[in-house]
Amino acid sequence: MFGWLQPAVAQTYPSRPVTIVVPFGAGSATDSAARMLAAHLDSALGQRFVVENKAGAGGTLAANFVARAEPDGYTLLLTTNTTHSAAHGLFKNVPYDPLKDFTAVARVGSFPSMVVANPNEPFKTIQDLVAYAKANPGKLEYAHGNSTGQVAGETLKRRTGIEVVRVPYRSNPPAVLDVATGRVATMIADFTTALPQVRDGKIRPLAVLTKTRSSILPDVVTLHETVAPEFDLIAWAGLFGPANLPGDVVQTLAKEVKAFVEKPENRAKLEANGIEAFYLPPAEFKAYVADELVKWTTAIKEAGIEPQ
Fold first, then answer.
1. Neighbour order of strands in the sheet with 75-80
2. Helix (H, G, I), strand (E, B) or coil at 212
3. Angle formed by the axes of helices 264-272 and 247-262, to 10°?
């Protein structure tokens, strides 16, 4: 009796805990956004959403893990342009297709970044940094913990004609710490990991990567207005599932991502963490990801970066 009810009950989503995989370490911008979103989904959908960090291989380790997972909605990916826009330009062998192997659920936000330096370094402005690098070719290092930092750093080197040594990290938090302690002179850092150190005076902000100044740090100049006209680069973040994710699961998740992003207190909390809230629904987000793949691949080639 009542057997006709069973399929509907079986399809109720979610009926057990959900894992949100993050391709970067704890404390990164992506990790912060994922944990805030997970807390909202916990409450809204009545199941635990657990964030699992799988850093390594430029984010491709985590992305490939989710691409190969069952498309049932219980393994998701909160990721960025690093895995879905830049990876194919930075690496020779990427084990997944960012468009065909995933279901785009929703865009969550943007991660602005900036050039920062240890305050004890002799350069106090971005113009000073460029002048110092030109006078001391190959002696200055810059760190980065994601693709945005690498692409921005290499593009800046090419545009300004400076020779600076790149120091890659698995994620931004340890790189920011090394700049604060003087182990590395400068880096390209996202706002999320850099802002606490900036506010404490442990690192100095020199310039933001976006063409317009940030409302979070309005006194910090842009690269566009100083040493690199027309420079404009910003990272994005969004939620994905494996390819062929059921439509009802996609809509359930997208609806709650929209509710999360549009809630004023969440937007304020995201901004306090250096994240700009920005929602796109599934179809629009899918098209956006396709456009960004072309944009970032082109930018990587123009920066002279050879796939590794």
1. 49-53, 18-22, 75-80, 235-242, 102-111, 276-280
2. coil
3. 80
Taking only the tens place, the pLDDT of each residue in 130-159 is 999 999 999 999 999 988 999 999 999 999
Residue 135, φ and ψ in degrees, nearest 5: -80, -20
- Total domains in the chain come to 2
Asked, for residue 50, whether it belongs to a domain, the answer is: yes
pTM of the model: 0.83
- Are residues 104 and 246 both part of a single domain? yes
What is the three-class DSSP state of 75?
strand
Q: Do residues 188 and 164 make contact, with C-beta atoms less than 8 angstroms apart?
A: no
Please give the DSSP secondary-structure letter assigned to residue 307: P
Query: The CATH number of the domain where 160 resides is what?
Result: 3.40.190.10
Q: Which of 60, 46, 89 is nearest to 170 (CA)?
A: 60
